[in-house]
Amino acid sequence: MITNLMMEAVFPSARRIRKCRSGFISCAGSGGFAKYYHPKILKGDVNWDYELFRVLPAVIGASDEEEVNAVLYGWIHKLGTVKENESEEKGEIVLEAGTDWIYDSSYLSPELSSLLINISKSGYIDKNRSYVSFDKIMVPQ
Question: Tens of pLDDT along 101-112?
Answer without folding.
Answer: 888 888 889 999
